[in-house]
Amino acid sequence: MDKKPDFLFNEYDRSPSRELIEKSRRRRKRRKRRLMLIGIILLVILGYIVSPLSKVMSIHVTGNSQLSKDLIVKESGITNHTYHLLLSNDTIKKKLKKTGLVTKAYVTHNILGGVSIEIQEAGLVAYMELNDKTYVVTEEGKLIEVVEGMNYTSLKQIPKISGFNDLKAVEELAGQYASVPVTIRNAVSDIVYYPEKGYDERVALILDDGKKLIVDIEDMKDTLSPSRFNYSAYMQSKSDICVFSFEGRNLYMTKCE
Predict the structure, then answer these.
(1) At residue 144, does pLDDT exceed 70?
(2) For the domain bounded by 54-121, which CATH number is listed?
(3) Which of 17, 72, 167, 235 has the fewest beta carbons under 10 Å from its own?
(4) What is the mean pLDDT of residues 162-188?
């Protein structure tokens, strides 16, 4: 005969209410641990944010010769309060190029708060002095006032614009002149406001040899394009001509005295 077991297991030997209490206690403990972990993470993040480690620690600028580092940093929008993890390299590039002073920019930053900015400065094609201020025309056709941080020491080597009292007219001139063929721009020493009867917005491009190209500002780009005016050919075949005056589609030439 089989021996009876000393005890019988009954699923109701354990109190259902006790099981619920135990489960609830374990849930509370898990919840408490999660909250503590979240709290620790938040404290670490908050501590990082308020610490200097979250800010830009250093800025390295290269490629600048005529623009100071301080000016580049100012135009980039970066300050010592900037969170380096939130920096957008593309946004910095756009800000620098928008100034007209920079044609290309390369920006990188690291988790240690270091920012590197490499730029290519815009070339200058002309300058002007007006009301005790100096303005430069960039190779992209922008007219920019010279301010602190722009160390342009060789302006006298590029054409000087004179005779203007209206900056808007010079802005239009800047956009047109920057598109004039380089072969012509390289021969220009001065750009002089040259109004004539019926042609109020005209300039005379004074060449290094004293010859003049007189053109309407608004049509300068098209008028002096190679398809309409072959500069090199005219200078060779018309060596006895000192004034080339463009009026509409017509070209009037005046011999040298």
Answers:
(1) yes
(2) 3.10.20.310
(3) 17
(4) 94
Q: Could you tell me which residues are beta bridge partners of residue 127? A: 136, 160
Evaluate whether 205 touches 184 at the Cβ level (below 8 Å): yes
State the Cα–Cα distance between residues 133 and 142, nearest whole angstrom.
16
Residue 4 in this model has a pLDDT that exceeds 60:
no
Task: Say if residues 217 and 248 touch (Cβ distance below 8 Å).
Answer: no
**Gap between the Cα atoms of 120 and 15, Å rounded:** 80
Please count the other Cβ atoms lying within 10 Å of the Cβ belonging to residue 243.
Answer: 14
SS3 68: coil
Domain range summary for the chain, segments of one domain joined by +: 54-121, 124-255
Helix (H) or strand (E) holding 222: helix 220-223
> What string of DSSP letters covers 17-70?
HHHHHHHHHHHHHHHHHHHHHHHHHHHHHHHHHHSGGGB--EEEEES-SSB-HH
Whether the domain at 54-121 and the domain at 124-255 fall into the same CATH topology? no
pTM of the model: 0.77
The distance of Cα 254 from the centroid of its chain, to the nearest Å, equals 44
Q: Say which residue, 54 or 68, is predicted with more confidence.
A: 68
